[in-house]
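Lecture 7 notes. Example A: sequence first, then its structure tokens.
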Amino acid sequence: MDLHLDSVTVRRGDFVLGPISYRMRSEGSKMIAVVGPNGAGKSTLLDAIAGLVPLDMGTITINGKLVSSLPAHRRGIGYVLQRPYLFANMSVEKNVLYGAADSGYAAGMMSTMGIAHLGQRRPQTLSGGEQQRVSIARALAMKPSMLLLDEPFSHLDPEMQEELGERLGELIKTEGVSAIYVTHSFDALYAMADMVLFIDGGRLCETVTGSVSTIDGRPRTRRFAELLGYRNFIRCSVVQSAGGVLSLAAGDLRLEGLGDAPVGSSVLLALRPEDITISMTSRARASQRNIVQARVTELRRMGPLMRLRLRHEDSGTELLALITSGSLVSLGVNEGSMVYAIFKTAAAHVIQG
């Protein structure tokens, strides 16, 4: 797969996407996840690749073919949107056959997606999950050069999201088609993504390629870190740097994190709430180098978990931690309790600036 975006720019009223330049070359199928806050331009980028909006500047090339000068129907791109846009006057079978490479392949795709028995039904008689299965089958039945997915499961229940996400991931691999997937789901991001593009304010701010641990562990900006689930950001100064491990100071609080920054510089230490262990003692395993004594200032239920707001009284540093309700009871933690927040150096990532 060879995707080349060269200075892609789209203007929609006061909003400008780009210029965005990005190239992805790989053997076999790849899943590119596009993440960013609402209004960042993620869907606009997919619309531009699909040919649904004109470019004001730049070019798009797929597998060596310049497609930005072609109308949408000649680009060979499958597109699955948040809501399934199906032809209400056609049966499920005819919807899938519309634009299909051949009828036999379309029938096979219907079987794979588990909708063969729905062939003569009309879309409006189907459930939301069934309609989205039809949309995916139709997009893949055309044997696209690339598949675009704009949060295709966002309106489905969690169980259906997981089931269709797994099936789609398997199909992309077996059919050998690369996909660009707009998502706000951490589960989808970590389960499916080979690469991540972070878009904010119409600009491509970060790109990450590699394993889940690589995607998870290298946020270079606070905005990207927030999208990856980081909620604790501690302003620190770098005291010492050795082999990618930074010794940090936040007032009189001493911490360690992973990163690269010069001694004396001001940085943010980013940490997820779920990476903090709560203890009533300061004893920790050897890998848990960060131990912060703090007071519990707030307890709040977050589904099956409890969120603790903590404050280190000398430095004023605040932390958010998540623990199970059972752990909260067994530890005897209440608002006002003094506890130890313990976390590994490997869980704390330094962001410059």
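Example B, a different protein, same format:
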Amino acid sequence: MTLPAIALSLSLLTSGAAAGHASLMRVADAEPVRAVYLTTGLTASSRFSTYLDLLKTSEVNALVIDLKDPDGRLGFRPVTAPIRALAPERYTIKDLPRKIDAIHAAGGSAIARIAVFQDHWFSERFPSEALRNASGVPWRDSIGYVWLDAASPRVVQYAVDLAHEAATLGFDEVNFDYIRFPSDGALKKIVYPHWDGTTPKTEVVRQFAETIAREVGERGIRTSADVFGMSFYALDGMGIGQHLETLAPYFDALAPMVYPSHYGSGFAGFTNPAEAPYDVIDRTLEHGMKRLAELPEEDRPAVRPWLQDFNLGAVYTDAMVRAQMQAVADNGGAGWMLWNPVGRYHKQALREESP
């Protein structure tokens, strides 16, 4: 299996960028990235070998690995000075560099996933960076998660430092998730310690993206960003600060989370979009790709969606997973990443590697 040319991609800021943002010089991957997602727990477990087998026997050519546990605690032992200062007493993955070496030995690439603005663990160490309610206690979304202020310089620097840590460990790409404001819960009760409440949320997220491009991308570290699937439709920031054309220039790849189960009833005429995986993704990508095509060529990132491989809204089958992959291919996507929170993927949906 050929290792995608992720580590070889250039992410150099150019001086001829349009006003208001910096553009990236991009080099296309040698082949589309086809990845599956692993939690820190799965990476540390005996099941890790089964994912290495996927790299050797199937079309999968990359593994996406969380750098943080679900609560935000670092899931590994840091090696760089800025992150060592935040090292936990215990960590889930005991031998992360060795795991990365094993991925490379199997012919795959390693992608580090960083959940940025949703992080309970960091908020406990730096309470001044967390969103709060009027009484001063941490604000929580509808699921109970704590969020950090997207306008906080310390929080943004932490993301930059983690990206540098990932590159030092040997990861080929850094994937940034939760680069947005909260979308649910008692939003009007949030007290922001840094955001002034008047700067548009899209501008706050844009400033984060610009910092990543400058402090991470220009150092030759390949980057990708996860965005709501509906960002390929919505013309505004959807109240969370994610606007397609605004974010596009700053990352090598955008990863819209086009899980059909996450679309509301009635989308594209479907009572239950989860039961129409090809159509939902086809229409989403077609719409977004047209918008991206209107940008200057140097501002167009690769599009590599997150696809659904879990049961929500419908019981997913091999054929339904495969249908999503076909929709990506039909719309010129640069591969895909499969999401299953417990790492149980439909192996029959993954084509065998050609000899």
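Note on Example B: The two ends are 9 Å apart (CA to CA). The chain is about 30% helix and 15% strand.
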